[in-house]
């Protein structure tokens, strides 16, 4: 029996070697026979497996989901009608150039059901117990679900599903805290948040004796035992600012299953065979800046290895523009996770007033570019700083600056200020205000002019 194409080792002569290996799928038999003859005549190679094809020919009625999966493997798909319409020559030695890839629509990034949420195909149960510690929706009215945020949320979700503690490493304003809180909001999950610093002691994690109303002292449990009892997430922000001996107290809590002995009190044991069972929904999520930041302690390998670690990427120019479009138009970008394309639903614009400007989109592009230039010049993202070169501390321009500028602008416009003045004032307050010398100010003004954000500053009334 002749071996199927998939295993064939006889390469055709170079001159006649067709460029496309085509798989015919989801087609009616008759259509398939016709298409196969047509393709062979034109030098295409027909293969029986999608995995070895670089073009899929599909039937008209193929379902979107199937088409997505086929495309994810072959990179290209088209219908028989589309291929015929490209009118390739019937000369066997000529390679047919396929029409452009028909890109399937992105899939919905979040699908909300009564008892669970699906995040990029990952099913996450919703917490069924109401808690005042669930982050409220109002915190996320401005959120753009861009590539870095989607990746970070997925990493947290993977840890949560598998019962692993999660650690998020990344620069300041890389959406680490936001990712945790937004996922908790979607899952109706209560979060106890603790900002660690050099003065944090074990008492803040586990509890300490405090004066009792009835006189004397009593032990008051802190975030860890409380969350273990009630099934909350504990968010330990800036974990590497705390002293190592304080953080090491976490080690047994990060084990699977977690345990904790309240040695500070009466030796109550939380966890396996202890006095108090640990709630199933209890999780620990930590965030930290890279150890290169001043004042940060490197996490010990023993501690790091207990976490599912994810590096949250800082937003770049594209993400800054996507944030602005989200704020003004409500649109969410397409993201790629696990080789598939996803998109969050369109949201309510926050600053729709700006969308009415005659050249709103050009303005948003100029603003994103300006912000990106300033942030880079200030050394954000780790590069050499041209702004604030002589300072020991770098200027700090990140998403918070951009969000603040747009909020100021919107406020001024609604108060009836003309756009040009509103923009100059906001740039002056948010960006120039942070600079400590005239030369840096001139440099930032030149950036605003070069990006087309403002007319030359000297023209201002
Ligand atoms: N994807 C996003 N969309 C809108 N705002 C964002 C986004 N990511 C971060 N921000 C904003 O940027 C600021 C810093 O985010 P945060 O999550 O606190 O960063 P980190 O914890 O990494 O330092 C916050 O004001 C937050 O609202
Ligand atoms: Mg944070």
Structure description:
The protein has 461 residues and is α/β, with parallel strands linked by helices. The termini are far apart. Helix 4 packs across helix 5, helix 10 (317-329) runs antiparallel to helix 12 and helix 12 packs antiparallel against helix 15. The protein has a 5-stranded parallel β-sheet with strand order 10-13-16-9-17, sandwiched between helices. A 4-stranded parallel β-sheet has the order 2-1-3-4. It has helices spanning 29-41, 64-74, 80-85, 147-161, 176-186, 202-206, 223-230, 244-248, 301-304, 317-329, 352-355, 360-377, 399-414, 419-430, 438-450, and strands spanning 21-25, 45-47, 55-58, 77-79, 107-108, 110-112, 116-119, 122-125, 166-169, 191-195, 207-211, 217-221, 233-237, 260-262, 268-270, 283-288, 308-311, 334-337, 340-343. The radius of gyration is 29 Å and the shape is globular. It has 15 helices and 19 strands. Helix 2 (64-74) links the parallel strand 3 and strand 4. It is 33% helix and 16% strand. Residues 1-17 and 89-99 have low confidence and may be disordered. The protein folds into 3 domains: 13-85, BRCT domain (Rossmann fold); 107-311, Rossmann fold (3-Layer(aba) Sandwich), CATH 3.40.50; 351-459, no CATH class. The structure holds adenosine-5'-diphosphate and magnesium ion. Adenosine-5'-diphosphate binds next to helix 5 and helix 13. Residues 176-177, 237, 287 line the site of magnesium ion.
């Amino acid at each position: 029996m002749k071996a199927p194409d998939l295993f064939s080792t006889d390469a055709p002569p170079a001159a006649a070697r067709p460029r496309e290996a085509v798989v015919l799928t989801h087609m009616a038999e008759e259509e398939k026979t016709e298409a196969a003859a047509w393709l062979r005549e034109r030098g295409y190679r027909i293969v029986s497996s999608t995995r070895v094809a670089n073009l899929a020919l599909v039937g008209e009625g193929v379902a979107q989901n199937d088409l997505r999966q086929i495309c994810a493997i072959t990179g290209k798909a088209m219908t028989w009608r589309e291929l015929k319409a490209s009118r390739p020559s019937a000369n066997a030695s000529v390679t047919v150039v396929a029409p452009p890839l028909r890109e399937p629509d992105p899939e919905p990034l979040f699908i909300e059901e009564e008892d669970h949420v699906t995040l990029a195909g990952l099913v996450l149960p919703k917490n069924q117990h109401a808690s005042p510690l669930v982050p409220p929706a109002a915190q996320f009215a401005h959120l753009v679900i861009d590539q870095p945020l989607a990746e970070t949320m997925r990493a947290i979700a993977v840890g949560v599903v598998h019962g692993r503690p999660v650690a998020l490493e990344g620069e300041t304003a890389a959406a680490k805290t936001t990712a945790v809180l937004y996922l908790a909001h979607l899952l109706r999950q209560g979060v106890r948040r603790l900002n660690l610093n050099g003065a944090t002691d074990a008492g803040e994690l586990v509890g300490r004796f405090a004066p009792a109303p009835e006189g004397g002292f009593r032990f008051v449990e802190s975030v860890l035992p409380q969350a273990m009892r009630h099934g909350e997430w504990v968010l330990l922000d800036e974990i590497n600012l705390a002293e190592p001996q304080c953080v090491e107290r976490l080690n047994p809590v990060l084990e699977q299953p977690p345990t904790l002995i309240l040695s500070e009190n009466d030796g109550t044991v939380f966890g396996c065979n202890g006095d108090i069972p640990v709630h199933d929904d209890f999780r620990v999520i930590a965030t930290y800046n890279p150890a290169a930041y001043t004042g940060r302690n490197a996490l010990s390998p023993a501690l790091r290895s207990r976490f599912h670690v994810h590096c949250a990427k800082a937003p770049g120019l594209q993400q800054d523009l996507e944030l602005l479009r989200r704020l003004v138009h409500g649109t969410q970008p397409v993201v790629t996770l696990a080789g598939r394309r996803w998109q969050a639903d369109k949201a309510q614009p926050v600053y729709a007033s700006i969308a009415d400007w005659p050249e709103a989109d050009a303005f948003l592009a100029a603003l994103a570019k300006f912000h990106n230039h300033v942030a880079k010049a200030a050394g954000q993202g780790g590069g050499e700083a041209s702004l604030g070169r002589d300072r020991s501390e770098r200027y700090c321009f990140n998403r918070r600056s951009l969000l603040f500028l747009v909020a100021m602008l919107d406020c001024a416009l609604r108060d009836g200020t003309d756009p040009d003045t509103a923009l100059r004032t906001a740039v002056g307050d948010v960006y120039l205000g942070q600079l400590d010398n005239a030369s840096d100010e001139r440099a930032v003004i030149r950036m605003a002019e070069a990006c087309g954000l403002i007319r030359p500053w000297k023209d201002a009334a």
